[in-house]
Specification:
Chain A is of the alpha/beta class. Chain A is about 50% helix and about 20% strand. Chain A has a five-stranded parallel beta sheet, with helices on both faces.
Chain lengths: ~130, ~625
């Protein structure tokens, strides 16, 4: 089933790359370049999934994540972090903050597809 | 992993942006070493570059940036203070990254020797620091994290552990050539370039140095437009389409009572179209910030090379210019800044002797005034010695030995080809080429240069540039049955000369007396070999024009009206025509040629040369039409 997915990254190149990957799965993609823009887009478009970078300005990915979790649970609006860092400390922090998953760049497009579909279906089932 | 061309293009654009931002933050950090925001910016730039390079599969760049990031981590943790030595290492690393990105975009080839040298320096600095900090702090997060663990959802991370890193880098360097394969040029000049004592004397190496200071942009044909600007354009386009369909409907079934409605819709569409045009042009506009930013680095390097203490002041960085102009203005500006440092600014001893602060000031200032953008490059140095300039010009035969020149005319001489006042040819500028090229480049952008200089106080070069190259405000004039457009910026006034105000001066040609000022008279019909309605200027109209260096009068039959037109190039569609800057189609479908005001006097001189030698007495400061 076609869903709307919000891709948050300060790099237009990464957003495009993720968009092309996700559109191949048959989903729609909305883009935002930082946390502030992402929150606006979430309020307006109600995406089914957010895929967010960590390192962004002015609002970074962790701040975005905590703001999302203040309103939506992991089941209602899943968030996948997609970032260059893969440190345990950060991943643990992401998990605690309520991320549904942690992906490290560079990502394998088919892997990303699997993860997206998996998260979407389990979120749908949990509702 | 396959990415499409658009993504690859975005990669290069963003990589350049990251490097620019990195350089800017680094240079700022030198004067504000404690600013955490700047360190964060450095980090983010490097980080984005690393991540993006990995996605693209550019492992050489990713690995190199990764090392750089370790160093930045030390900065961030406060284990490392930014000193000039540290900044030098980071800047050298930055130069290598610039070359690597340039290579990816197909522009240039990086120098493996420099790559490994910079890599070594980054590593050496890191190692020194690590040894000096005991007990070792766990600050190498980015190295520690490279383990192959898959956390709660994800991934196969094949990043090598830290110890293998060095070996990997060596391999990567060896394999670097395939990033873009073409045969490398001979190594010799590169090696010379790397030996500081030899570089200045080697003319062959010189152009390369410059090429590195201001990297060429082989990719520059795309513009990034903010989404909100684009959205407004799309909205407006929608409005135009709606208005158009309303008109179409009204016209198919037009009754007298609906004419008023039709007029209203047409007026509405008119407004939308105009706004659309303006916004469309706005999408091409970029702040001069990007061009200005590179001068921090340039002045820093020049300052170190000459031993002169120089502060660079920038203002008006948000002033917007057409993208084409922005790209083409960087080289002339670079030259002017080099020139200011090399010739304008005195040595610290000289400055002390004349009671000036030891640190000299070079400023770049951009601002908009009327339909033009001005960029000033000024220094508080020794100023231009007009007498010396004139003496030199006379010695070189550029002006007659008995010519009397005003200071302003003397200043113009430095833009003559082959002119250089430097007693010695120095490394930085002073190669006797340049200022004439600067002038030519600026004029190619339909701009002009003005020079102001006070001996002992400094020099200011003021560049006047058009807001945009795509649209022109012009006055339509008629000669016989032909219509020409005169750029509005060049027009001072238009008048009908009274009988007896046109006369012929021996050696000058025809002049017209405009309230006591005698201006050379150019007849548009004789310049283009046309048949005018009025042979005598007193019967037609005379326009007083400024071609950037002098005023002159242009005789035409009639003024038609003001137009805002889109310039169509004659050169690309036909060929270059002297005196004509381009062509356009007027509202009624007529084709009008746009006059190149700067070439008209020369053109007219050439046309009338057969009738007798035209001679303006003064040395001709403008370029002759070849």
């Amino acid at each position: 089933m076609t869903k709307l997915i919000l891709v948050v990254d300060d790099s237009a190149m990464v957003r495009r790359h993720v968009r092309l990957t996700i559109e191949k799965l048959g989903h729609f993609v909305e883009e935002a370049s930082d946390g502030t823009a992402a929150l606006e887009s979430i309020a307006k478009k109600r995406p089914a999934l957010v895929i967010s970078d960590v390192n962004m300005a002015p609002m970074d990915g962790f701040t975005l994540l905590s703001k999302i979790r203040a309103t939506y649970t992991r089941e209602v609006l899943p968030v996948l972090m997609l970032t260059t860092e893969g440190g345990d400390e950060l991943k643990a922090r992401g998990k605690t903050a309520g991320a549904n998953g942690w992906l490290v760049k560079p990502f394998d497009p088919s892997r990303l597809g699997d993860v997206v579909n998996h998260v979407l279906s389990s979120a749908g089932a949990g509702k | 992993m396959s990415v499409d061309d658009q993504t690859a293009l975005l990669y290069v654009e963003e990589a350049r942006e990251c490097l620019r931002d990195f350089e800017h933050a680094l240079l700022m950090l030198e004067s504000l070493p404690d600013d955490p925001d700047l360190v964060a910016r450095l980090f983010r730039s490097a980080h984005t570059l690393k991540g993006n390079s990995r996605i693209m599969g550019y492992d050489v760049i990713a690995t190199f940036t990764h090392h750089l990031e370790d160093l930045l981590d030390l900065l961030r943790n406060g284990d490392l203070m930014i000193t000039q030595a540290v900044a030098d290492v980071l800047l050298a690393a930055l130069d290598v990254l610039k070359e690597l990105v340039g290579e990816v975009s197909g522009g240039e080839h990086h120098d493996p020797a420099r790559y490994s040298e910079a890599q070594e320096r980054v590593k050496a600095l890191k190692t020194t620091l690590r040894r000096s900090m005991l007990p070792q702090r766990p600050s190498m997060k980015s190295l520690a994290q490279s383990a192959t663990d898959l956390s709660f959802v994800d991934r196969t991370d094949d990043e090598a552990p830290a110890l293998d890193e060095a070996q990997r880098v060596a391999e990567v360097v060896r394999a670097a050539a395939p990033v873009s394969a073409p045969a490398r040029e001979p190594e010799a000049p590169e090696l010379v370039r790397n030996v500081p004592e030899l570089a200045p004397q080697s003319p062959a190496a010189e152009p390369k140095r410059e090429a590195r200071a201001a990297p060429r942009d082989p990719e520059s044909s795309s513009v990034r437009v903010p989404i909100d600007k684009l959205d407004r354009l799309i909205n407006l386009t929608g409005e135009v389409v709606i208005a158009q369909s309303m008109i179409a409907q009204l016209v198919t079934d037009l009754t007298p009572e609906r004419v008023a409605l039709l007029q209203e819709v047409v007026a509405q569409m008119d407004r939308h179209c105009r706004e659309l045009q303006e916004r469309m042009l706005g999408a091409r506009m970029l702040p001069v910030r990007n061009v200005f930013a590179r001068f921090h680095r340039l002045v820093r390097d020049l300052s170190a090379a000459t031993g002169k203490a120089i502060a660079l002041e920038l203002s008006g960085e948000d002033t917007e210019l057409d993208k084409t102009v922005i790209e083409k203005i960087a080289d002339p500006l670079t030259h002017l800044v080099r020139n200011a440092v090399d010739h304008g600014v005195e040595t610290p001893e000289q400055r002390a002797a004349s009671g000036k602060p030891a640190q000299a000031k070079v400023s770049l200032r951009a601002y908009q005034k009327g339909g033009s953008i001005f960029i000033e490059v000024s220094d508080d140095g020794r100023g231009i010695d007009a007498a010396k300039v004139v003496k030199k010009a006379k010695a070189k035969g550029l002006v007659r030995a008995d010519a009397q020149l005003s200071d302003e005319e003397a200043h113009q001489l430095i833009f003559q080809a082959g002119f250089s006042t430097a007693d010695q040819v120095t490394e930085l500028s002073g190669r006797g080429v340049g200022m004439d090229v600067v002038k030519r480049n600026v004029e190619a952008l339909k701009g002009s240069i003005q020079t102001e200089s006070k001996p002992g106080q400094g020099t200011c070069f003021r560049l006047k540039l058009p807001l945009t190259l795509a649209i022109l405000d012009g006055l339509g004039v008629r000669v016989g049955s032909d219509v020409f457009l005169v750029p509005l910026v060049s027009i001072i006034e238009s008048l009908q000369p009274q009988a007896g105000t046109v006369s012929t001066l021996p050696g000058v040609g025809d002049v017209v007396d405009v309230r006591g000022e005698y201006l050379p008279l150019v007849r548009l019909h004789s310049a283009f070999g046309l048949t005018p309605q009025y042979q005598r200027a007193e019967h037609g109209i005379v326009m007083v024009l400024d071609d950037g260096s002098q005023k002159f009068a242009l005789h035409v039959d009639e003024l038609i009206g003001q137009y805002q037109v889109v310039i169509k190039s004659l050169e690309t569609n036909f060929c270059a025509v002297p005196g004509v800057a381009g062509a356009t189609v007027l509202g009624d479908g007529r084709v009008a040629l746009i006059l190149d005001v700067g070439q008209l006097t020369a053109l007219s001189r050439n046309r009338t040369a057969a009738e007798g030698p035209a001679h303006l007495g003064l040395p001709l400061l403008r370029e002759e039409v070849a």
